[in-house]
Amino acid sequence: MSSYYELIPDASNLIESQRSVGYTFETAIADIIDNSVSALAEKVDVFFDNQQKYVLILDDGYGMSKKELLQAMRYGSKSVSDVRAKGDLGRFGLGLKMATFSQCRKLTVISIKEDEVSGAIWDLDVVKSNMAWTVQVLDDKEIENTIKFDELTKLKSGTIVIWEKFDKLEQHANFMANFDEVLERTEDHLSLVFHRYLQEKKLIITFNDREIDFVDPFFTDNKATQPKSPDVILESIRNVKIDVKPYIIPYQKRLTQKERHMLKKYEHNQLSPGLYIYRNRRLIAWGKWFKLVRPNELANLAKIQIDIPNTIDDLWEIDVKKSQLVIPRSLRTQLRNIITKSIGESEKVYKHRGIKRNKDNLQYVFNRIEKESKVSYHLNIENPLIKQLQDNLQDSDNRLFLALLKQIEEHLPIESIQYDMASDREIEKQNESDDKVYEEIMLLINNQTSKESKKLLLNSLKYSEVYSKKTALLARIESELND
Ligand SMILES: Nc1ncnc2c1ncn2[C@@H]1O[C@H](COP(=O)(O)OP(=O)(O)O)[C@@H](O)[C@H]1O
Ligand SMILES: [Mg+2]
């Protein structure tokens, strides 16, 4: 007869093996804040210190009793099949632990609920040396000595989560610069993924006591944004309603200076057109069409907000990080219809302006636009020089600048050029010297603050009509940047 033997996993090996599941620093922090939001927090304070090397998240949510805290520290503290509260952003009962250890080796949690104060620590070095799933439970004195504990005691209930021992970040030569950069990215990420909470003032997030702003991917405050009529689609397997709201967003030209700045910050195509999928109003996936339609230049202005509840996570195959999902088969056709309709709208906006007909994929100084049987030439406002100038200008100067561009555009001496061409006279082209071009490129590049954005810009210059042939020069600048 067979017998049963309990095989307890090796704690340290198992935890270590799960550390690289694909969280980034910013998605990991967002996962911790998801817990605060699920605990009905209205204020979340993020504190960090690159000297003492900690990140701390303090919330005024409903907190945990000692028993609940220990349960929360457990891997798999809740089952996927547990019924969740309507606003709960959790999923597997793993986020707190896995998000933390994806970034560091020590997790401290202190919580207050109904005058009961409790605290516990997971430290991967302790787990390793004890060779067991041992969590350290803190006594009152140890709790009192925790960073920012006095801030927590000012609240009726709430929780502190502290991350320490950043082994991965510390491998980098310049920890401080790296830490600061990572936190900047985190702020941008939170401004976007929680933007609806922030916008509706249901949540305040601060970074070292400074309130962070929201980033609205639909620019709903801009009068040029066109919200389309909302749709509801019915998910037939679970009989759940899903709200869909398409937006046609304005052209770059019609964005305010603040909005353009925002776009610039999210340069990695982060605010691209596409679906914007929210789970319990928290943005989880965005900026692509999920293979529902072919990406199309004409869909460039369409963004579609989709609201899903937390009761059908399994259908969307939502992962631990809540960043990966698959559109359920039962919804694809309905969604495709809505998208096609809004792309049609986006298309109309474009057609109205005519269609760009350039010879190749280069960014030209002038775009040649065909509309019906007519042709016109327009200055290409995607030109990096124009873009940067626009970002640096105040709104009033920017209007002047645009007026100047318009004037140049409308008063191209076309007849005169036609006459000269016809009369066999050679039109002299002024060739800029390499030194001049070098200066011009450096002027552009030095306007960028981070090395990363400098590189991105330099790369985009390779595809511009003006600089594409200057390969040697671009290569030289590239190697200078890498030094
Ligand atoms: N900030 C917090 N406030 C109150 N409870 C919390 C907080 N963070 C975590 N918890 C509790 O710990 C549990 C485990 O969290 P987590 O590991 O992130 O899993 P999940 O969010 O999927 O439930 C949560 O379900 C919640 O009960
Ligand atoms: Mg969670």
Automatic annotation (TrEMBL):
SUPFAM superfamilies registered for this protein in UniProt: ATPase domain of HSP90 chaperone/DNA topoisomerase II/histidine kinase (SSF55874)
InterPro entries the UniProt entry points to: HATPase_C_sf
Superkingdom classification of source: Bacteria
A Pfam family it matches: HATPase_c_3
Molecular function terms, GO-annotated: ATP binding
Alphabetic keyword roster: ATP-binding, Nucleotide-binding
Protein name, UniProt field: ATP-binding protein
Origin species: Carnobacterium divergens
